[in-house]
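Exercise: predict the fold of this chain.
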Amino acid sequence: MTMLIASLSKIAFNVPARRYRATLGICSGRLRLSSAAGKDHHGNDESETPPKSAHLRSESAGLPDWIEHWSRDGFRKVGYGLGATSLISAPLVVATGHDPAITAILASTTAAYWYFGLNDIKQKGQTIRRNFPVLGNMRYLLEMIRPEIRQYFVEGDNEAVPFTRSQRTIVYERAKGIDSTMPFGTRRDSSAVGYEWANHSIFPTKIREQRVVMGKNNPATTQPYSASLLNISAMSYGALSDRAILALSNGARIGGFYHNTGEGSMSQFHKEGGADLVWNIGTGYFGCGGFAHDGSRVFDPDMFTENIPNAKMVEIKLSQGAKPGHGGLLPKEKISREIAEARNLPFPATQDCHSPARHSAFSTPHELCEFITRLRELSGGKPVGMKLCMGHPEEFVGLVRAFVETGVNPDFITIDGSEGGTGAAPPEFSNSVGTPLNEGLSFAHAILVGVGLRDPVDKSKSKVALIASGKVISGWSM
């Protein structure tokens, strides 16, 4: 270490190499080099203080020295000074005839200063507050308002995640019925790497309303469903409030598109909104299952038959983009009477509601085909599909191979991108697991076209429809 520091002193300061001892001021943010006793290159005695040019001192973000050196002792000294000022101010105010409120303000400030400071010293949950009383609270205040400062003063219109400011503006304006047109052309850099655009036709034509008929080309599906191109993807009651579910359902009814229930099953608020519902069945079989003797959740065909009249289609959830391969948990404290009723859970809840990572009704591709057939028969021929985030490509190929071998295929497949959101997920799963939507959708389409389940030219002839789920904001997103 001594040799390394001596070499650095030659390079950085262009002075004769000396033996220095490095000391790092952690709190002050300064690095000092202090000289050890020895001889210089002329053989003369060195003093304990190194030359001025040998000092390495970093700027500490421009903070004044008193902030860097703040401590409990500093807190007490300032407190004593405030107390003395408050005591001295009382007779001075009376003698000079000033407003007595000045003394009251000083006394209140001093009392508050000591109250918060002593509480900071006594508490053991936050080290910064304990070591830097009163002043340390500024760190947490700035941390609390940091998102707002960035959103309103720092970030650009097209750089934020998960939605940019320009995307949010479009949603807000159209939701309020405000004109969302823009003057002076695009604000985007059309020469930037990654810029996307669509090529138009010089002979535009009038396009009639387009819908996708799910199950039209499957003889086993006797109740096909005509779906809009834009719909509401899966969001559960429990993750969303009753008012949110009711608003989404009403919006879907007005717009003429379906509302996916999410794996939390069909609540009374889904039904009250009056929209066409797609019943999402996850690993917990909420609304169509119960508890086995070992405490696991199992599918109940009688309960499924009882609730299926409320839905237009059924979607088997294999995985979701926000946390593929991961189960879910709803704390018992959040299980209300309405949630328990929708999910067929006991109330009051005595334990958390767990959704396992995998299904108990099937464990292989061929068993999944059998489960699809079973749901289609129990529903009276309604479309049955599945939802997944693309994981191992060979596993999806295995699923498609089973569709071909058994002659049983889903009416639709929802591809959920890894950029999807959820109420709660480990950051490792949200950030790094699963295939993004564009890549997953392209791969699924290519495989299904290759085995003849999708028509590459006329999608209306396809046996399996593809649904994309992932941050669709506008017509350009579609």
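Check your answer against the key: Confidence is low (pLDDT under 50) at residues 1-42, 46-58.
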